Each structure stands twice: as C-alpha cells, then as structure tokens.
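Appendix C reproduces, verbatim, an entry submitted by the partner laboratory led by Prof. M.T., so that reviewers can inspect both the input and the predicted structure.
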Amino acid sequence: MKNRFILGVVVTIVLGIITFYPKDIIGIIGKEPYISENAHVRVISRENIEDSGIAHESQSQEHAKEIFDYFTEYKFRRTNKSYSDLDEMASYTIKITDEGEEMFFVTIRGDKYISITDKRDNYFSYKLWGDEFDLDYIEEYYQSLNN
C-alpha cells in the first residue's frame, strides 16, 4: 500500500513537470520547420475571436524566418486559462506554409498567451514564461507584410 502511494506521488510529480515545465517553441512543435524560398506567411489581426480580422501576407522566405526566429527567443508553459477568456483578447494569427503544407501555426493572444498546434497536431494554449510579447514589434512586422 505504501509503495503504491509513493509511486502515485512520483508519477504525479513527473507528469506535472512534463506538462508545466517551460518549453521553447521547437520543444512544443517537435522540430524546426524547413522554410524554403517558397514560404508564404499570413498574419491576421483581430480584436477578438468574433472579429474576422484583416490579413496581411508575404511570399518571402525572409519574412517567414524572421517571425519564426522571434518565437524561438521565448519559453512557454501550458496554461489552464479558459478559451472564453482568451477569445476576448486581441490576437495575431500567424501561419507559415511552404508549397501548400502548413509549417507553423500560432495565435498570439494578448501579450502573454499563445495557442499553437503542437507536435501531435493538438491545439493547446501556453503562457509566456516570465515576460511579455513585444506587441509593437508584432504590429510593425504585421504592417511590413503589405509593403
């Protein structure tokens, strides 16, 4: 009986660490995407989830690498914040495709949260670990896509 209790505690601790330990973006999606010269970036800015938003796009490998590299500077941990709360936040949805294949898909929600498709094709929300997104940079990047 005592051994089962100890095993249960150990398993709970290990699962907690695996689930909530901060990960970089590559740890979440599984591998760094190959971004070729055919990369296409689409960014949609929305006031909330009900807003259809305004899309800006670029057919530039440089733009695709720039925004992916931006995310590699941060670490994230899973969050239990409800989707209804996240849906009320202003957001930027960023999708990088290469020859029609989705390479990277993330939604920045507010200045601390992302929702992302992980390496198992599950869509989860994560909280930025100990920092805030530079939303001025994101807005400048977004605006630069139509120039």
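The radius of gyration is 17 Å. Additional entries are available on request from the coordinating office.
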